[in-house]
Amino acid sequence: MTMDVKIYHNPACGTSRNTLAMIRNAGIEPNVIEYLTTPPSRDELVRMIADAGLTVRKAIREKGTPYEELGLDDPALTDDQLLDAMLEHPILINRPFVVTPLGTRLSRPSELVLEILPDTHKGPFTKEDGEKVLNDEGERIV
Length: 142
Prior knowledge:
Helices cover 23% and strands 15% of the residues. By secondary structure, it is of the alpha+beta class. The mean pLDDT is 94.
């Protein structure tokens, strides 16, 4: 299927790998952007956060990042200051963000990506950890 899909991906992240695999399971080959080496522009990042219905704080990754050493937990910091830190240290951008014509999601958990993909899944899907997400007919298991 042809659909313009972007995933801001970190191949070292299991959630990101699962999200990418679910997109491909829908028959879509996305534009994969390894954001650690090719971060989004400030405007793109602001748009993704807003389109996903998040605050800037909710889009920051804390675990495995310089979040604490940079003092980013300070509630006095403005969104602009937090965005500056995210752009200077892309590891602070939570992942994976997925952008499709049907919407934008921070796909945590990975199956949130299903909300913005067409119903074109090709059979079952099981995450890396063994959790079944789609049944044999490609329907979401709830």
